[in-house]
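Minutes, structural biology subgroup

Action item carried over from last meeting: produce the structure token record for NUDIX hydrolase (Paenibacillus gallinarum). EB confirmed the sequence was re-checked against the source entry. Recorded below for completeness.
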Amino acid sequence: MEEVKWLTWAKQMQAISQNGLAYGKDIYDIERYEQLRSLSVEILNTYTKVDSNQITDLFANETGYATPKVDVRGVIFQDDKILLVKEKADGAWALPGGWADIGLSPREIVVKEVKEESGFDVVPRRLLAVLDKNKHYHAPSPYHVYKIFILCDIIGGSAMEGMETSEVNFFDRSNLPQLSEERNTYGQVQIMFDKGLQDNSEVVFD
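Output recorded by EB:
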């Protein structure tokens, strides 16, 4: 599914302005980049009805060269069922994971996130997929996000709710609960079943 045009344009404007502010020297160019950034915030405010100050804090407050954000998700199976956690934020279910932390590798992040959100201790086994959020059926987001899915094995711990999760359970592919589609789509979870239950599957990307 292609991203709606206005959101794509607003993101591109934000990236151009952020890069210009990071490397621009001429005061007149910097003023134009500030105007472009303000216009991108106005577009988002008009179409999403989110407060402009909130958009600025979340979307137009970064500095340096604009790059995609990284989201890391753990994929864990037990008896051919997949581990999902129920998100307190929206009451729907997701693969355990979240934003990548500065200073931690993808392996370290997935171990930390799975423990915090599900209670299980895991060891990462292999990479399953690197997906561009724009190319999947997610709700509109101000960020351009790469999603990393890592297959893990449980080595300890027990199912336990976390600060951001209220339930932990395993589901088979034909009986999935309502998913938190901001975090992962039904199509992505089905890809995890296809790739995670095969020993020698190739990594999916894009």
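Discussion: The radius of gyration is 19 Å.
Next step: EB to file the record with the rest of the batch.
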